[in-house]
Amino acid sequence: MSPDQQRGASLIIALFILVVMLLLGTALVRILDSQDDQMVLEVNGTRAWAAGQAGLEWGLARVLNRGGVTAAAACGAAATTLSGGAGLPAGAGLGGCRVQLSCAHTAFTLEELVHNRFIIRADASCGSGGLVVSRSFESQAFD
């Protein structure tokens, strides 16, 4: 093999190695980006769970500790939207989260006494852009 042919072969081998390294680097960047998105989704999922639980407790407190308000009116008032600073803490923990509450009320008579059944549903979502996570909770309470 002549020296010119050896230089040409070395150039081809060098280009091949560069292409392989570029492909490996691109794959590594994609893997790291994917892991970053997964971590953000996991954090947003935990935040949505906490926001949903807080919303559920907020709704239950409104219907079970209603004072002189009728059960139907308390249930209607509990159906609202909570967000950071408006029912949810405004700090970084639940900031950017939103909870939609709904309430269904049924009155029934048992042993000549009127009782109330409440079904509170909390649909929570946290995150922004394409990394939003939602959680739904439902609780039933009687008084």
Structural overview:
The chain crosses the membrane at residues 12-32. This is MSHA biogenesis protein MshP. Keywords: Membrane, Transmembrane, Transmembrane helix. The protein has a five-stranded mixed sheet. It has 143 residues and is an alpha+beta fold. The mean pLDDT is 88. The protein has helices at 3-64, 71-78, and strands at 81-84, 87-88, 97-110, 113-126, 133-142. Helix 1 (3-64) runs antiparallel to helix 2. The chain starts with a helix and ends with a strand. The chain has one domain.
Keywords:
143 residues, MSHA biogenesis protein MshP, transmembrane, membrane, rod-shaped, 49% helix, single chain, 2 helices, alpha+beta, transmembrane helix
Topology:
Elements: H1 3-64, H2 71-78, E1 81-84, E2 87-88, E3 97-110, E4 113-126, E5 133-142
Parallel strand pairs: 1-2
Antiparallel strand pairs: 1-3, 3-4, 4-5
Helix pairs in contact: 1-2
Organism: Ferrimonas sediminicola
Protein name: MSHA biogenesis protein MshP
Transmembrane segments: 12-32
In short:
The protein is of the alpha+beta class and 143 residues long. The protein is built from 2 helices and 5 strands, in the order ααβββββ. It is rod-shaped, with a radius of gyration of 29 Å.
